[in-house]
Specification:
Length: 491
């Protein structure tokens, strides 16, 4: 469902005619070599495309407009091989709508001590050519990613790969369609928000369909298709003989196929539902949501459309990396002073992409929703570094809140907890992390990621032009509160 290699980042190299045609030929050859090497690097998930060297305001404007119009272009890398006077870039940069990475590099790694002359100096001027462009973008208040270092360095390529993933997630949001089945959970504030402003800022639309529209599609699914899917369940998961015979399993499979059919027909990239609006449905979707998330769809419960969209973006960003991304909720705490932890879970809908081992397919009472006992996948999640990310609507702006955490293996079995779950220790510690989250107005819903970092989320916020508040190992409450105050003033 998500193939990042179809997407393109363009390498646009700046120069000028001052240095002569022979120098421009060398600039072009070097630029082509760099683009090809980055394209062939296995850690760079997208295609890197060389574009002809630009030397005039007209050429710069034309390539920026070309990038805007190119459906597969998700961003541009700008590099000044020589000195490119930045007043030439004003019109093009003003018109450019794609994310920008300023690659501050040079062709040669080392100074050729015995051979360096003025011809070499004139040709290899990135050290101050890139500063000229940097001034102009700062003067124009342009958000961009700056990556500094030699283009062959593994660290530089890793930074570029990370930014390309973020640009892909942003690109995926542009014009994306999401659907809410039913409305927001009644009286809940943080999961609601301004969908008009969100479409203006983020580029995606989120519209509502009555649950009856979905139910009619679910009811149209053939028995043959349902039987085929239940057989797939038996192959993929640990499942009891009794459940294989239970009509509830077929009901769950029919819901999954109905949801998938509805999403594909509407070209939707994600959805939300709520247990308060299930009219005509036999059970609340459980395994259906878990499997659709694994396939790449965004999801959040209780009508939480912002988190559903964020889950989709983070799944795109993490595509092809080890680990997964899932809708999550801080559910309950372990306040042992010697070992405080958070138990993350949800009623049913945690994505199996974060499972440690083979999930178990089970049916249990839910206790809310007033429908038949739903089928769901139950599993633990592996230990390791992770993040929780949440978008909240602050009224005058959107805030992206991120907490770095360390997932841990469960201390004990949880034989009576029939949901997927994960235990984590938030940084810098339980008390400060939870306090900071509350002070920032963070939601109880998040996207939990095993394969993305706070750097990815910082880059994403920069592209979107929104605030990022980070809770990490270095967070102090006093400094964090001051940061929130400064952000209030800045925005």
């Amino acid at each position: 469902m998500i193939d990042l290699k179809k997407l393109e980042v363009w390498l646009i190299t700046g120069s000028q005619h001052l240095y002569g045609e022979e120098a421009l030929k060398q600039v072009a050859a070097h630029s082509k070599e760099i683009a090809a090497a980055l394209h062939d690097d296995s850690q760079v998930p997208v295609s890197v495309v060389y574009k002809p060297v630009v030397t005039t305001p007209e050429e710069i404007y034309a390539v920026c407009m070309e990038a805007n119009a190119a459906a597969n272009c998700i961003g541009v890398m700008l590099w000044m091989h020589t000195f490119s006077p930045a007043k030439m870039w004003i019109r093009g940069l003003k018109a450019l709508k794609k994310p920008v990475c300023h690659l501050h590099t040079q062709y040669n790694r080392d100074i050729p001590w015995n051979d360096i002359d003025m011809d070499f100096m004139n040709l290899n001027q990135s050290a101050h050519g890139d500063r000229e462009l940097g001034f102009m973008m700062s003067r124009m208040r342009m958000n961009r990613k700056v990556i500094t270092g030699h283009w062959k360095d593994t660290e530089v390529r890793a930074e570029l790969a990370g930014w390309a993933r973020v640009a892909a997630g942003w690109h995926d949001w542009q014009g994306a369609r999401f659907v809410r089945f039913g409305d927001n959970m009644r009286y809940v504030a943080v999961t609601d928000g301004d969908k008009v402003e969100a479409e203006s800022v983020f580029g995606f639309s989120f519209n509502t369909h009555g649950i009856g529209d979905l139910v009619s599609v679910i009811n149209s699914i053939s028995d043959a298709a349902v039987n085929q899917l239940t057989a797939a369940y038996a192959d993929a998961y640990t499942i009891s003989a009794d459940l294989l015979k239970d009509p509830a399993l077929k009901d769950a499979a029919r819901i999954e196929l109905g949801l998938q059919t509805f999403l594909e027909a509407g070209n939707y990239k994600g959805f939300s539902d709520t247990f308060e609006d299930l009219h005509g449905m036999i059970q609340l979707p459980g395994i259906a949501v878990q499997r659709l998330m694994k396939a790449g769809y965004g999801f959040a419960g209780e009508g939480d459309w912002k988190t559903a969209a964020l889950v989709r973006a983070m799944k795109v960003m993490g595509s092809g990396l080890a680990g997964g991304n899932s809708f999550m909720e801080d559910y309950t705490y372990h306040f042992d002073p010697a070992n405080p932890m958070v138990l993350g879970a949800h009623m049913l809908e945690i994505c199996e992409s974060i499972a440690a081992g083979k999930p178990t397919c089970e049916k249990h009472p839910l206790g809310i929703g007033g429908k038949a006992d739903p089928v769901r996948l139950v599993f633990n999640t592996g230990a390791g570094a992770a993040i929780n990310a949440s978008i909240v609507d602050m009224g005058n702006r959107f805030r992206l809140l991120v907490n770095e955490v360390e997932a841990v293996a469960p201390l004990h079995d949880l034989p009576k907890l029939p949901v997927a779950r994960v235990l984590w220790k938030p940084y810098p510690d339980m008390k400060k992390a939870c306090t900071a989250w509350i002070l920032a107005g963070g939601a109880h819903h998040t996207c939990y990621s095993q394969n993305l970092t706070s750097t990815h989320m910082q880059d994403f916020a920069n592209i979107a032009g929104i605030e990022l508040a980070l809770i990490d190992k270095n967070t102090s409450i006093r400094s964090f509160q001051n940061e929130l105050r400064w952000n209030d003033a800045a925005y």
